[in-house]
Design brief:
The chain is an alpha/beta fold. Helices cover about 45% and strands about 15% of the residues. One of its GO terms (biological process) is glycerolipid catabolic process.
């Protein structure tokens, strides 16, 4: 694991495993989640299937640059600015975060890659695939959405419960308990994780890095994001959409809409899966992603041969 500074000056912490000459998969994580949230079973599962796999901390998260100089945005004001003629301070956008992915690829001299994005990472991957079509061999969007974040009964319930459990400032133990509460609320009903496992993961996460202000800046970027329906029509890369039937953050309709809006995409619905990565499903999901990426590689290879002939 190491850090690299991209052209914008943002420093990204990343892990790069697998043969240098193998097809590249870049994993893009979601809101406030560090790269370590990608389960090792999935990460190394893809490496063992013959890919060079890169996971990284987004800006304002984990061990990457924390952009405190950009200030602390008002999340409520940002939400209201979508409906009312008021100005909200937006430190950066999802397009800026998509540029981080391109910057990482350029710095590592990667011409093209398969993108796998989870939640907010799926939104970022969609933007990259739409704006930089020649650089994206395939796209996999997991538990994400292609529309503005919509308030539903399930995600409002989660937000209200989290608001009640808001951690005390500068208290790591409180932050750990909040993280456990969060993962219980968004977890998969059919694949619950035990309290000890959740506590261990939360502790590791908070000890590695903890940035509430960075979370707010990322959240503001998500809320201020544009509707991507037109952008999605520009995506030419073979696309796989994976979505849980019991996702409390982005309901199943989000996965269905994304699959509908991206031409010739394939949809995999996972019964009982919420907004997390149940360990028992990682082998299956790694298999889906690898199969999808290999097919896209074969398609690209055949096209290149046809051009030569």
């Amino acid at each position: 694991m190491t850090n690299i500074k991209i052209a914008t000056g943002v420093e990204l912490h990343y892990q790069d495993e697998g043969e240098r000459c193998a097809p590249v998969i870049i994993l893009i994580m979601g809101l406030g989640a560090q790269m370590t949230v990608w389960p090792d079973e999935l990460y190394f599962g893809l490496v063992n299937k013959g890919f060079r796999v890169i996971r990284f901390d987004n800006r304002d998260c984990g061990l990457s640059s924390h952009l405190d100089s950009l200030g602390s945005p008002n999340v409520i004001r940002t939400i209201l600015s979508k409906k009312l003629p008021i100005h909200a301070h937006i430190p950066y956008t999802l397009d800026d975060m998509a540029s981080d992915v391109i910057g990482l690829m350029k710095s590592l001299k990667i011409k093209r890659a398969h993108l796998v994005g989870a939640s907010m990472g799926g939104m970022i991957a969609q933007i990259v695939a739409a704006k930089h079509r020649k650089k994206v061999v395939s796209l996999t969007s997991i538990m994400s959405t292609s529309a503005y974040p919509q308030f539903t009964f399930s995600n409002l319930k989660v937000m209200l419960q989290l608001a009640k459990a808001r951690p005390k400032p500068n208290c790591r133990q409180s932050a750990v308990q909040y993280n456990i509460k969060l993962n219980k609320l968004i977890g998969s009903p059919a694949y619950p994780q035990d309290e000890m496992t959740l506590h261990q993961l939360a502790k590791q996460n908070i000890e590695r890095a903890h940035s509430p202000e960075g979370f707010k800046r990322q959240l503001t970027a998500v809320i201020a994001g544009r509707f991507r329906q037109h952008a999605l029509s520009q995506i030419k890369a073979p696309t796989l959409v994976i979505h849980g039937t019991d996702d409390p953050i982005f309901p199943i309709t989000s996965g269905l809409q994304t699959a509908t809006r991206i031409r010739k995409s394939k949809l995999k619905l996972v019964n009982g899966m919420g907004h997390d990565f149940p360990p028992v499903l990682m082998q299956k999901i790694a298999k889906w992603i690898a199969k999808h990426a290999f097919k896209a590689e074969q398609k690209r290879y055949k096209k290149s041969l046809h051009k030569v002939i």
